[in-house]
Amino acid sequence: MGQRKPSAETITANQAAMMVSKAMIGTGILILPQSVSMAVNTPDGWLSVLLSGFVALLAGWIVGLLCRRFPGRGFYAYVGDIIGRPLGACVVVLVSVYYLFSAGYLLRVMGEVTRMYLLDKTPIMVTMVLFMLVANYLTVGGINPIARLIELFMPIIVCILMVLIVFSFRDFELDNVRPVLGEGLLPVFQGMPSSILSYSGFEVLLFLGGFMKMSRKAVPAVLAGIGLTTVLYTLIVLVTIGSLTVEEVKTVTWPTMSVAMNIELPDGFFERFESLFTVLWVLSMYTAYVLYQYGACLGAAQLYGKDFRVWAYVVMPIIFAIAVLPDNLNAVFALGEYNSYASLLMFGLLPVILLAVAAVRRIGNEQAT
Amino acid sequence: MTNKNTTWAGAGVMSNEQRRLSEKLHDNILAFQSIMGQSPDVILRKFRIPGLNKDAALIYIDGLVDKQTANELVLRPLMMLEPAKARALGTAGHSGEDSKPPRAARSRAKAAESALVGTDENNMTVSTGNSQEGAEGSGTGAESAGSGHHMVTSALLNVAELKESPLLDDCIQEVLGGNTVLLLEDADTALIVGSCGWPSRSIEEPVSETVVRGPREGFTEAFRTNTALLRRRIKDPNLVLEPYKLGRRSKTDVALVYIRGLTDMALVEEMRTRLARIDIDDVMESGYIEQLVEDNVMSPFPQLQTTERPDRVAAALLEGRIAVLTDGTPFVLIAPVTFTMMLSSSEDYYERWMPSSLIRLLRYAAAFFALFLPSLYIALISYNHGLIPTKLAISIAAGREGVPFPSIVEALIMEVTLEILREAGLRLPKPIGQAVGIVGGLVIGQAAVQAAIVSPIMVIVVALTAISSFAFPQYEAGIAIRMLRFGMMLAAAVLGLFGVILFFILIMAHLARLQSFGVSYLSPVVPARPSQWKDLFLRFPLRMMKQRPLMNRPQDTRRQK
Fold first, then answer.
1. CATH match for A13-359 among 3.40.50.300, 1.10.1670.10, 1.20.1740.10, 1.10.10.10
2. How many CB atoms within 10 Å of residue A174?
3. What is the pTM of this model?
4. Residue A44 CA neighbour count, 13 Å, CB half
5. Within this chain, do residues B395 and B456 fall inside the same structural domain, yes or no?
6. I want to staple A222 with a disulfide (CB 3.0 to 4.6 A). Which of A60, B327, B364, B399 is the partner?
7. Who among A12, A148, A276 is closest to B387 (CB)?
8. Which residues of B, range 44-63, sit inside 8 Å of A by Cβ?
9. What residue of A is the nearest CA neighbor of B295?
């Protein structure tokens, strides 16, 4: 039978905000305390993260403005209008490739974390392939199921993080985060490049904007999403440094996991909170991965005109190849870093350029901006 | 069986070529006989109407008609008709053919009268008077050829349901539906008398959905009884029953029910097109319709709600949903349905809000246990011992000492045993069913543990799972969870907790994709509309629930000022 009534492909502002936030909180939160502490070298890493959050808000605001200028149309559709078809096609390819790499990186990190804390004997390929298949099932469902699932999972994910933060307050020592600004503002600024990287992901609004019922809510949505992420990031970094000390954070691979490891519930009820945290964190990785895969498929579908469902199956082996490419964990993190730099370049600069060109050429909805 | 009934059924269900009746009574009778055959339950009674001096024939199926209607209200007044009265009824145009009724016929009619019920003359006159009034009302409508004869006859028949049809197939359909067809000499139309009446079960308490507080009556197999049960609850002229006849051979009566001005017409239209698409030779139960109109055949979750409770259907209609009544089954379909509806009972609204809310939360907990408990046991025992508190881990390990199987085999043995017991208890006659319970209790409980086939903690897990899966107010939802439980157990056995979470994500992704008649299966949880969360995990006080659920897109959103 299968003849369902096609519901309009629209998402609410609420869903858009959660998806923006979700695309950011994927893997970053697991390694952010370490990378920031390495760069800052003082307990002020959380200040870098907070400040970077404001920079991200600025970037997000520009992306929001761009969305509002082209209501009902996705980034892939209007980029060609702004800078011409050939150049636009190049941008679409770049963005799609970026999403492929993001998805591959996330997949690999998921596999590594699972191997580390859950299934040490199961081959990493098995977990990755199964994860990918389950994700693909949602991706081919289209934007509405993705939005619904993220809306459903987002509160759970925030709850997990809050539980982690609240429970680790037992180990939290104020001395560990003191002195605040002991060496001035310079270390804080030194930490900003690496912390800004973890904010990549808000650019999903570029293609989400086309689905939004009310595009004038694009700016509030992206700001809310980035704001939520900023708060969570800052708290996590603060708690991590506060309970582990800067020196220790710099040495561990997965600092957030180490915090979870230290958590002990009364009467030894959960001796291994980190396993539970990993299990629940799969929810978070899943939702982020689906967004990346969907972003890649949508770009490819825009270029070649086929249904994005076809592309979902096409990109699966590519993502898998990218995921197994790095030999070791260091190579994985290097991949993640390159990825973030690419994101910074593309989504820090590109929206500004596009917005400027659109304003000069008077394309799109002038009143909206 | 109203006139409207057949016009609706005409859409694609009837054969396209419709045979007409002839003017010759003899030809018509032959046609009937050739089509209906010589089955002994088909009654064809030829008789003569003395008042009109015409031959007539009465056709019905024994067992499907109320014989009292057929004999007393149709046969008797016609056979007792006297020429004078026939003229008085205004058939002057046909008076030329009038002649004295044969004595034989009259005495035969007398005999029939006394043999049947023996009504007195007084009663007879009163009823004729009644029908005369009725004839004046109905006579204006009947202007087609041959209706002149029927004006007389219809004036005499003391029945409420009466119509005329020139089509042979139509008449046959009506006869098969339990009505009586009256053929008349020189008339190319037949008179169809509503005389359905067959023995049916009385209204009883629904077996599959019991409540402590709330009405105790349930739907029955009789279509008319069911529609009446609905009408009694919603005395609104806008309650629409759209009749269908589904099944090329079974010609099952089906009604699409909604409330005009309240229900979203797009939803009604969607159901109409899906019903019209059904082309099957029999519709034995509403389950046939359910399976032929549902959105996703591959889903373990039911996409239409089935219920035996009229109050539940009425409540659903007032929420802006639609119902499908099917003849021959007490189960009524309701669409659309969402996951949260599967965990609510009609009693939730009859009890006060606090107990209702708590019990509803309890059901969510039960759903969690029914789905996750055995798989969590497997995952924790086989992969992630670290998550079990140390003391408990030690006692579990002690209990599992001597159990030769891995935890998945242990769990499968117990779960399958339990499912078999449940199935056996369901199919057996009730008195023996209890014996199954005793055997099951012994097998599951003591013996399996003493034989060291399963550990005591496994018994607790299975028991809790079983009890939890009984707590579903909707049987179908319980089955869905039961099926998924086994998938979850296998996932846990292969990948531990990672498998459990992956399978959980898969279920949620499926639910996020699933739609029931254009309504997301996860509504109203997501898309999030907090104003719609008053009837979700908690059932808010009725005074606060002033809106209908918006996910059904009702035309009239307020239910309370």
1. 1.20.1740.10
2. 7
3. 0.87
4. 22
5. yes
6. A60
7. A276
8. none
9. A2
